[in-house]
Design goal:
The structure is a single chain. The chain has four helices and five strands; from the N terminus they run H-H-E-E-E-E-E-H-H. The protein has a three-stranded antiparallel beta sheet with strand order 1-2-5. A two-stranded antiparallel ribbon has the order 3-4. It folds into two domains: 41 residues; 43 residues, HU Protein, Chain A, CATH 4.10.520.10. It is elongated and about 60 Å long. A hairpin with a 3-residue loop joins strand 1 and strand 2. It is 46% helix and 24% strand. With 112 residues, it is α+β, with helices and mostly antiparallel strands.
């Protein structure tokens, strides 16, 4: 799912939201999450998962062009750990083939 698809889903689920407002809400939430991670904070969304930072220690790398050794400094990378409810929900569908959004829409029409 892309950000624009998420905005569209939000606007569909909450009809009082104009598409522009849904887009603003998603962008605001993502900006707040990015800022929190950039400031070294952890984000926890119960039932969904948590976002944190993993430290990658400095190491000696190699320039692929020249072959010379280069010191790669330590860095922090974002890491997502899914929550128990999300893991169980995804695992419950492990045996089923994933439906595309178009297929899901056509299945609903068959039931009517």
């Amino acid at each position: 799912m892309t950000k624009s698809e998420l905005v569209a889903q939000l606007a569909l689920r909450f009809p009082q939201l104009v598409l522009k407002d849904a887009d603003f809400a998603v962008k605001t939430m993502l900006d707040a999450m990015s800022d929190a991670l950039a400031n070294g904070h952890r984000i926890e969304i119960r039932g969904f998962g948590s976002f944190g930072l993993n430290r990658r220690p400095s190491r000696v790398g190699r320039n692929p062009k020249s072959g010379e050794k280069v010191l790669v400094p330590e860095k922090f990378v974002p890491h997502f750990k899914p929550g128990k409810e999300l893991r169980e929900r995804v695992d419950g569908r492990a045996g089923e083939p994933l439906k595309q959004s178009n297929e899901a829409d056509s299945d609903e029409d068959d039931d009517a």
